[in-house]
Design goal:
mainly alpha, elongated, 67 residues
């Protein structure tokens, strides 16, 4: 069961990071094509989401029982 929890946390973290990478690349590509600066809301989304991923992983590691 402990392996399943680890797999779920890994999947959540990896999926969120993949989605953030996709959003970032897409926004940079659109900004490059339209000759405009990168949207500040995307940068703040990245900052908050990275904190969220760290929180998910650290919460899992802190709640893990030692047997």
């Amino acid at each position: 069961m402990d392996k399943m929890k680890g797999l779920i946390v890994f999947t959540m973290g990896a999926s969120l990071m993949g989605l953030l990478i996709l959003i970032t690349i897409a926004d940079f590509f659109v900004a490059f094509k339209e000759h405009r600066p990168v949207d500040e809301s995307v940068i703040s989304l990245l900052a908050m989401s990275i904190s969220g991923v760290v929180g998910i992983v650290s919460g899992y590691l802190a709640g893990k029982t030692k047997e």
